[in-house]
Design goal:
elongated, two-stranded antiparallel ribbon, alpha+beta, 2 helices, about 90 residues
């Protein structure tokens, strides 16, 4: 049981770090400098566990450039920070 709780804490910590990294990168873009909040969620993708953008505030409207900027940043950070939910190797 204890190992499961620690793993959940590790996952939560990694997700929190990804949230912060994503927000920092979005704030660097002129079109998204007013971003106040982002939330990601983990999911099992075609190459294993990864994450996706769950929410952004203020919401990005239909303006194509803002949407493209968000999509590009998310894709780049997904490659850099894919989550690894696999159990640690046996000692």
């Amino acid at each position: 049981m204890r190992g499961g709780k620690r793993r959940d804490g590790d996952v939560s910590e990694r997700i929190g770090c990804r949230n912060q990294a994503l927000l920092a990168e979005l704030l660097k873009l002129p079109t998204l400098h007013d971003t106040q909040f982002v939330m990601i969620r983990p999911y099992s993708g075609p190459k294993g566990w990864t994450w996706e953008l769950d929410r952004i505030e203020p919401e990005v409207g239909p303006e194509q450039r803002k949407f493209a900027d968000v999509t590009g940043v998310v894709a780049r950070l997904q490659q850099q920070f894919d989550l690894d939910f696999s159990p640690p190797p046996p000692a």
